[in-house]
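Q: What structure does this chain adopt?
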Amino acid sequence: MRNKDFKDLLTSIDQARKIHAGKMKPGRISKFHPIIVTNIRRKLHVSQTRFAHIIGVSVDTLQNWEQGRRMPEGPALALLKVAEANPEAVIRALHA
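A:
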């Protein structure tokens, strides 16, 4: 590990401690709950494999989202929010 990378890691650990102690506010907060991904998929009546294919992610990624080990970010989060509001629109738009 390069010296700069190690220093960045130590800085991140220090920031995490401060956030945990309430001395610092987190820079980013996500309010997307894992169960929502499952609900969106179930609204579409598709398997995990099919839904992962529809939205262009691996099945492992989808399972991590559904089980709360990971959180969707960026374009995936935006697509899931649209799918939550109008699942049929996502199916039509992605020609699934």
